[in-house]
Every structure is written in C-alpha cells, then in structure tokens.
C-alpha cells in the first residue's frame, strides 16, 4: 500500500504533530512509504533563509529520531524533487480560484495580515501534487488536513475525468485517538506551533520538568470526575486521548482507572516523559552529524525522483504537453 505524508519545517514539533502524524507514519512505514519535509510549503509565510535551512535539518533528525528508518522507507526533501513544483503548475490549471479561497487554513492565515503571498492561496495545490505524484493510496495526517485531502481527491477526479485515468485517488487516514490534540490551556483550540501559548503546547524537545509543569497546569474543570466526554470535559478528554495514544488503551479504559485529576496528571506526565526521552536522545545524537542527515535525504531523493518523474510525465502528456 503506497503511503505518503509530509510536514513543514516550521519549528519544533509538538505532541500533536507527533501523535497525530509522525507516530502513525512510523507504524505505517514500509518500502512503499514516502515521507517528505515539505520545505517549499514553508516559503508561503515569511521565514528567514538560515532558519529554514536549520529547521529542515532538525525535522529530518526528528523523523529519524521518532523511528522512521531510511533502510525501510523513503525520506526526502520536497525541493529536491523538482516534479513537485512542475506538478503544482499543472494542477493550478485544474483547480479553481473559488475552491482555493474557501479553504479554512487559507482564510485563517490570510486574514492575520495583509499582503499575504499567492503561495498561501495555492498551498493546497502544491500539497495535492505531493500526494498524486506518488500514486498514493493513503495519507496519514492529523484531523486539520481533512479539507486539503478532500481537495486533493476532487482535483484527482477532475483531472481523470477530463484527461483520462492518470492519478490514484487517495484517502486521508487519521489515528483513532489524538487526531486533534488540543491546547492544554485552551482545550477548545488545537495545539499549534505558531499561535499557541508556550504553556499550551508540549514540544518533543521539552525537558521532563517543563512537561510536568505544563501537564500539571493543564486547564480542566471543577466537577472533579475523570470522564471521557468532549462536550462537557474537553480538558480531561484531551489528556485522556494523549494518554491513550501513548499507552494503546482506549481513553475510556484509562478514565476508569482514575478518580482524581491529580493522579491522572502525574501518571500522564511520567508517560509523556518516558515516551519522549528515547526520541530526544536519538535526536541529540543525530544532530551531531548533519552530513549524514543530508546524505539520507539525498538517497531518498533518488528514489522519489524516479517514482514522481514517471507520474509527472504521464500527467503532462495527458494534458497535451509534448
Ligand atoms: P503542521 O505542523 O501544521 O505542518 O502539521 C504537521 C502534521 O501534524 C499534520 O499531519 C497535521 O495534521 C498534524 N497536526 C498538527 N497539529 C495537530 C494537532 N494539534 N493534533 C493532531 N495532529 C496535528
Ligand atoms: N499541509 C500539510 C500540513 O500543514 C503539510 C503537507 C504538505 C502534506 N504536503 C503534504 C501532508 C502531503 C501530507 C501529504 O501539515
């Protein structure tokens, strides 16, 4: 089963990125799995060039530290496979302005400031190309990417109808729990790298004492009953999902073991610390050898270029390019 996913090198990952996406990637890795750092996507917002370069290396190291193995799957940089930019153009001539301007993420990010880049509008088309270039069947991503996945399917079907069968129509896959990890301080808002308060997000690089402090201070409610119920208890339900994702139990089963918030929080904090520790250790080791990190993605790009090149040529030919 062909699997592809990617993340932007836009800063340290939080546990939402890890549980919602990266952990699933590790579980789904095989010789048919492709995971990329979508560095071209990072150019849609202002980013310092040196920062982009260092965050790209960080993200490769994080992928490997979390358990992606370049001997098993293909790990590459989007910008090292030029077909992504080329496919983007073909698909921009399939997508409409209306459907792009209706994307939630675009509406959120474009209203935050004036003079946003055109790339912010066309971002989901580049993403659709990332996916379609690899004849992807499944795309493991967090819940916030559903709308982009739906657009990818629409574009693939429209293309196939207009130009003949060319693309595999992919589906997005979300984990059963923790597909949308919420901010610890504001559990009705998703945990995020950018806007969230530092106390609201646990980063994969956080120390044991930072993790402990953030979990102990996580917003709950006053009825003091440990119950999995998103409507009335979003704070506790969020903690239960994080626990469940790391322990492979259901959130209900975890809830049954606790009567006090304090006990749940202490155990969750220990579990998060214990789960992240080996990742942090490997990350520190990997970061001592940036040359090897570059070599991993250079090898990945060879395989990615082969697969993507074939699909790109098929699509270009179908549209009438000689
Ligand atoms: P981003 O950081 O927005 O580039 O997201 C990278 C990956 O993490 C995507 O698959 C997202 O769907 C996923 N993701 C981002 N935020 C969360 C969250 N709060 N909970 C679960 N998954 C998330
Ligand atoms: N839009 C995704 C995000 O913000 C990143 C992304 C770009 C992606 N291309 C992709 C995810 C292809 C999956 C497949 O998280």
Instruction: Summarize the helix and strand pattern as letters.
Output: EHEHEHHHHEHEHHHHH
* Terminal Cα span: 31 Å
Total domain count? 2
Bound small-molecule species = adenosine monophosphate, tryptophan
Average predicted confidence as pLDDT:
96
What can you see in these coordinates?
With 322 residues, this protein is mostly helical. It folds into 2 domains: 3-178 and 289-319, 3-Layer(aba) Sandwich (Rossmann fold), CATH 3.40.50.620; 208-284, Tyrosyl-Transfer RNA Synthetase (Orthogonal Bundle). The protein is built from 12 helices and 5 strands. It has a 3-stranded parallel sheet. Helix 3 runs parallel beside helix 12 (290-319) and helix 9 crosses helix 11 (261-286).
Q: Which features does this protein show?
A:
322 residues, mainly alpha, Rossmann fold, Tyrosyl-Transfer RNA Synthetase, two-stranded parallel sheet, 12 helices, 5 strands, 54% helix, globular, binds adenosine monophosphate, binds tryptophan
Outline the fold blueprint:
Blueprint: E1 3-7, H1 15-28, E2 33-37, H2 49-66, E3 74-77, H3 83-92, H4 97-101, H5 104-112, H6 118-132, E4 138-140, H7 146-163, E5 171-173, H8 208-216, H9 234-247, H10 251-256, H11 261-286, H12 290-319
Parallel strand pairs: 1-2, 2-3, 4-5
The structure holds adenosine monophosphate and tryptophan (TRP).
Question: Quick recap of the structure?
Answer:
This protein is mainly alpha-helical and 322 residues long.
